[in-house]
Amino acid sequence: MHRFDNQTVLVTGGTGGQGSSHVRAFHAEGANVVIGGIDAERGDALVDELGDRARFAHLDVTDESSWSAAVTTAERAFGGLSVLVNNAGVQNPPALIEHTDQATWSRILDVNLTGAFLGIKAAVPALRRSTEGAVVNIASTMGLGGTAHYAPYVASKWALRGLTQTAALELGRDRIRVNTIHPGVIATPFIHEPAAGAGAAIADFYSPEPFAVPRLGEPADVTRLLLFLASPEASFITGSEYVIDGGLQLGPALQAEAA
Ligand SMILES: NC(=O)c1ccc[n+]([C@@H]2O[C@H](COP(=O)([O-])OP(=O)(O)OC[C@H]3O[C@@H](n4cnc5c(N)ncnc54)[C@H](O)[C@@H]3O)[C@@H](O)[C@H]2O)c1
Predict the structure, then answer these.
(1) Which of 35, 46, 69, 227 is most buried by a 10 A CB count?
(2) Whose CA is nearest to atom 36 of ligand 1?
(3) From ligand 1's centre to the CA of 14, what distance in Å?
(4) Ligand 1 atom closest to Cα of 15?
C-alpha cells in the first residue's frame, strides 16, 4: 500500500531537474505518471527507467492543443487524472527592465504563467471526475519580492500566486485543492546553466553561505513537500503557499562568534 496507489499524476517539465525527481517519487509511491515535456529523448529514457505505470506526453505548456493531448494520454492509459504539477518554468536572461524586450517578457510569462493557466483549464474536467484532485503550482521565492534583473520571471511567479488562490476558490467545492510551492535556490540545470543570451548562471547571485541552512536545496527537498501537498494528508490545505528555501527569505543568519 502506497500513498498514491491508483492515482495518476501529470508533471510538466517532468523530464529533468526537479520535475524528474517528482516523477520518480510519485511513481515509487504507487502513482501512474504522465511525464509532460518538450524533450522526447529524456522523456522516453525516463519511461524506460520506470517501466510500468509511466508514459511520456509531448507537452509544450504554452500550446493548448498539446495540453488536451496530455490529459487524454492520462485518461486513456490510466483511466483518469488526480494530480497536476505545474512545474515547467524558464528564467529570463538577467537584464534591467529598460533593457528587456517585449518578446522576452512574453516568452517568460507564456511558459510560467499562461502554461499553468492552460494546464488547470485542461485538467479540471478530469480532476473533477477523480475522487479528490490536487494541483500544485511551482512558483519561486522570487515571486515573493523583487529581484533586480529578473522582472519577467519575478512577475510571472507573483502572478502564479493569484492564479493559485483564484483556482482554489473556484475548485474547492469540487474537492480539488490548489497550492503553491516557492522553492529557494535548488541545484538543477536551472541555476547552473546560464539563461540564453546571458553570461552568468543565477547561482552566481546566491551563495548559500550566509543563510540559516548553508547549502543549496536539492530537488528531493521540494519533492517531499510536493508529495505531502498532493496527498490526502493535506486535505484541509488549499490556496496556500509553502516556502522551501533553507531560510533564504529570512536574510543572513547569525554567524558564530570567533573564539
Ligand atoms: N532551480 C531553482 O533554483 C528554482 C528556484 C525556484 C523555482 N524554480 C522553479 O522550479 C521549476 C522547475 O525548475 P528546475 O529547477 O527543475 O529547472 P530545469 O531548467 O531543470 O527544469 C525546467 C523544465 O521546464 C521545461 N520547460 C521549459 N519550457 C517548457 C515548455 N514550454 N513546455 C514544457 N516544459 C518546458 C524544461 O524542459 C525543463 O524540463 C520551474 O518552474 C522553476 O521556475 C526553480
Answers:
(1) 35
(2) 13
(3) 9
(4) 39
H/E stretch holding 25 reads helix 17-28
CA dihedral 45, 47, 52, 56 (to 10 degrees): -160
pLDDT exceeding 90 applies to what percent of the chain? 90
Relative to the CA of 189, which ligand 1 atom is closest? 20
Pocket lining for ligand 1, CB < 6 angstroms = 12-13, 15-19, 37-39, 59-62, 87-90, 111, 138, 140, 183, 185-186, 188-191
- In angstroms, what is the span from residue 89 Cα to ligand 1's centroid? 4
What is this structure's pTM?
0.97
The rounded distance, in Å, linking the Cα atoms of 8 and 48 is 18
Residue 258 pLDDT level (bands cut at 50, 70, 90): low
Contacts of residue 120, Cβ cutoff 8 Å, sequence gap at least 6: 84, 86, 135, 163, 167, 178
CATH domain 8-245 topology: Rossmann fold (3.40.50)
pLDDT tens digits along 180-221 = 999 999 999 998 888 777 777 777 777 889 999 999 999 999
Is 153 annotated as catalytic?
yes
